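Researcher: Good morning. I'm working through a list of sequences from a screen, and I'd like to move beyond sequence-only analysis. For each chain I'm collecting a predicted structure so we can compare shapes side by side. This is the next one on the list. No need for commentary yet; just the structure.
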Amino acid sequence: MSKRILYWLQNDLRIDDNPIFSDLASQQCALDIVFVINPHWFKSNNYQQKPYGVHKQQFLMQSLYELQQALTEHGQTLHVLEGEPIALLKARINDLNIDEVVFSKQIGLYEQRQISLLKAHSPNTKFTGVLQDTLFKQSDLPFDLNELPKSFTPFRKKVEAANIPITLSMLPEGLLPQPITLCAAKPIELTEHTDDNNAIMHGGFKSAQAHLAQYFSGLLPSTYKITRNELDGFNNTTKFSTWLAFGCVSARQVYKAVEEYEHKHIANESTYWIKFELLWREYFKWHALNAGNSLFSFKGQKQTKPLTTFMPNRFAAWCNGSTPFPLVNAIMNELNATGYISNRARQVAASCLVNELGLDWRYGAAYFEQQLIDYDVAANWGNWQYIAGVGVDPRGGRHFNIQKQTAQFDPHGIYTNKWQGNKNTSAQLDNLNEVDWPI
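Model: Good morning. Structure tokens for this chain:
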């Protein structure tokens, strides 16, 4: 009798460069592939926000649909379950006589606890985790994790000097183990809402590969460093972060695509900068594993707490795009409408919340978690701590002058007008001044 394995998918919604699928293809086993939609994701929790907003939920369902269709073509299926993950998976392990559970090791603390709980509830089942959300394996790093540099630059220099080879895991064509249960418990159906053609990005690993091919087919990579700070314009940034967040594409695939482009076309400062940004993402991953609970702590990596607080009216104005700052309002309006804003826009909005509004940075981080399609626990909370001065920035926080940012990146008000940044500003200002708005 062959081994019975359950693969618990999480943020690894792809077949290509998926080490778990590659390893399973070589095993004699019966396979059950499961994704669990947790009702907790759609309920307000800490900081009054939901883990999943509508845009992120839409991208998830599109990604699950593409993967389920692809697995069917491989003679497999993806079972999408809804409910409390531990209870559902414990019951499935027992009902299907599962011998082993395989899963992607998680960076997030909550997700790590879920794995630990499932292990505790299934003591007779083997659990095998593979970290596949990073460029490098932990054993590849040129230092022990507890000796991770305290800021990005020394990390980058050590990693680049080590010249760590990056390889992809290939799945033999069409080869996957037989399914334990072929009929999907819940076939994914995309409604008009979840298959919105007006969305700026479409979820799924095939969509990710199409975008990867399109982006590297022309001149965009060779001008990335010049355009990356623009507030608007789809092609000014790579947009890979959305598919990376759900594991529709791997960081390794993106890195290798840059190298191939450099080999075939041109290697310049812009192509290097794409790899530079992937290394920033990498640093935040290892930092999150190292930081543990302190990634979510008010004082972060520092000894003292920042001099901010929480005022509901100010926070609501920031979320709703009705502050006295038109550029910030435009940024928040775009975020709320699309689930995406540029890196420059994120920094400006975050700096405003912390510095101009004097608010607790964790509320902003939680709101970004809810709204951003490309939410990544390590990058999001790490970057917010960075702005708030309680993270890995050796300079102790960042304060972006909003007037200067407006003059530099939106001098003619095109972006602000497009996203109605001036709307409600004057109407709200008088009311907010009653509580000593800091302008």
